[in-house]
Amino acid sequence: MSRILVIAECHHDHLTEGTRKALACAAALDPGGADLAVLGSAAEAAAEEGRRIAGVARVRLGPQAGFDPPLATVWAPVLARLAADYEAVLMPASSLGRDVMPRLAALVSGVMITEVAEVIDPRTFRRFIYAGNVRLTVRARPEAGRLVLTVRLASWPAAGERAGEAAPVVRDVPDPVGDPGTRYIGLEEHTSERPDLQSAKRVVSGGRALGSAENFALLEGLARRLGAALGASRAAVDAGYAPNDLQVGQTGKIIAPDLYIAVGISGAIQHVTGIKDARVIAAINKDPEAPIFKIADVGLVGDLFTIVPALEKALERAGVGS
Ligand SMILES: Cc1cc2nc3c(=O)[nH]c(=O)nc-3n(C[C@H](O)[C@H](O)[C@H](O)COP(=O)(O)OP(=O)(O)OC[C@H]3O[C@@H](n4cnc5c(N)ncnc54)[C@H](O)[C@@H]3O)c2cc1C
User: What's the CATH code, domain 4-171?
Assistant: First the structure.
């Protein structure tokens, strides 16, 4: 039996990328494999996906009714019953994970460590504080109890497919219990043709320099050619050029794409905090002294209104995207 339990998160019948990242963190904790608990109406489909992921020892499946939409007040008491079998319980540090896991930690009197970026040993972890500027090493005392961990999304690769046979599925997650005391009112979801910013491999991000929402749309063509998500600086969001959920940085999303293209973004520390795990950073800025060039791997000095359409044309000529 595995010592580690990962709580799955589903979106439109699929496991989230964050779930796979939590599984990668679990593999660093115990290469022997982790159990994966899947709750909610998407559980059947997601369990099928989960049992084919490397490092999954068993999938624990629950009743499909009662867990949707996911409320921490419903999930945590059920997970507390499952947690009794494990030394550590992990979940992605997503909105749901941040909501569920502190409750779970309280219910099991566990040791909560948030945003785990690295596993040093089974009780010692690295995590960041002060907007990523200070790295902490934290150790949970052996006698302190069960570990309840959230996994920093920008720090882990997604666990891939397994080579051998699919993992077994057991249907033993109990029903939700009692009155949760909270009521679900509704969800307003921003939909976009572009990939999800948090998990995209490429991101084209715009800053204040775009000057208007109409001009911000200029980035869509480039993003489409590259199959990239759109992002924005806080200045662009505050000015209403881009929706709030596109904000990258300390008070926005922390992302780790393979390629990040910063267009008309100065490179303030609060913005850079959100992209320092990006593999390649390219910057377009008309000011050669802009701080973004200090961290950029590739820099283009010039007017974005000339460079972006030229880049798009060059990609078209090269037959990249459509
Ligand atoms: C507590 C706190 C939290 C914050 N959190 C965040 C956060 O999460 N994310 C975030 O982004 N910011 C955050 N900020 C704000 C941050 O400090 C900056 O103000 C913001 O990032 C600046 O956005 P910007 O680079 O788009 O704008 P600016 O700093 O105004 O930069 C615009 C850049 O565009 C260039 N430019 C202008 N015209 C052109 C052109 N035609 N072609 C090419 N380049 C051009 C300029 O040279 C300049 O470098 C936070 C601030 C605080 C205090």
Answer: 3.40.50.620
